[in-house]
Amino acid sequence: MALRIELSPNPTEEQRMAIVAPLRAYNRAHGGPSSMEPFALLIQDDEDAILGGLYGHTFYRWMFVDLLAVPEQGRGQGIGRDLMEKAEAMAREKDCVGIWLDTFSFQAPEFYKKLGFTECGMIEDYPLGHKRHFFQKRLLECLTD
Q1: 110 φ, ψ to 5°?
Q2: pLDDT tens digits, residue range 60-78?
Q3: What pLDDT is stored for residue 141 in this prediction?
Q4: If we measure between CA atoms, which residue out of 138, 103, 88, 132 comes closest to residue 118?
Q5: Of 28, 87, 94, 139, which is the most exposed, with the fewest CB atoms less than 10 Å away?
Q6: CATH T-level assignment (fold) for domain 34-138
Q7: What's the pTM value of the predicted model, to 2 decimals?
Q8: Which residues are 99's β-sheet partners?
Q9: CA 20/CA 1 separation, integer angstroms
Q10: Can you tell me the distance from the alpha carbon of 37 to that of 90, in angstroms, rounded to the nearest whole number?
């Protein structure tokens, strides 16, 4: 069978799923079964409008914080810390090994360090002149063979 590479400038969800299928099969064979469980903690006003919050998921017993946004009028009031504490409590309830996330140098690396996260990676010039930091906070110590 001859294989070729072709650019799809506007990929469809069907194309994405075709790419992901063999990757998921490989991951299951080597990492075991796991399902991704998304969750959101919402910051809402008196009219229930969503102004920010925390969005993430758990997968392979790790929680990933994908998005954390506190609206301007809520900054400096401990709302970001409260969101992260609620997420950590959820991670502990789900028996997660830890939590990981990424942030840009102009966003909140110091905030995450104050919460007990340690840097586990960094990309320079992403975006140009800045850095992208990767953090983790281990909740359980696991032994591997």
Answers
A1: -70, -35
A2: 999 999 999 999 999 999 9
A3: 80
A4: 138
A5: 28
A6: Aminopeptidase (3.40.630)
A7: 0.90
A8: 63, 137
A9: 21
A10: 12
Scanning the structure block, which residue is given the tokens 């929680």? Answer: 63
The answer to whether 62 and 100 are in contact (CB under 8 A) is yes
- Terminus-to-terminus CA distance in the chain, angstroms? 39
Q: How many CB atoms lie within 10 A of CB 27?
A: 15
Token readout for 106 is: 């102009």
Separation of CA 56 from chain center: 5
Give the separation between CA 120 and CA 27, rounded to whole angstroms.
22
Neighbours of 45 (CB within 10 A): 11
3-class state of residue 127 by DSSP:
coil
- Over residues 98-127, the mean pLDDT reads 98
Handedness of CA 59, 61, 67, 73 (dihedral sign): positive
Distances (CA, A) of 36 to 39, 56, 73, 77: 10, 10, 32, 31
Task: Select from 133, 132, 130, 105 the least CA-distant residue to 117.
Answer: 133
HSE, CB side, 13 Å, CA atoms: give it for residue 31: 13
DSSP 89-106: HHHHHTT-SEEEEEEETT
CB of 9 closer than 8 Å to CB of 29: no
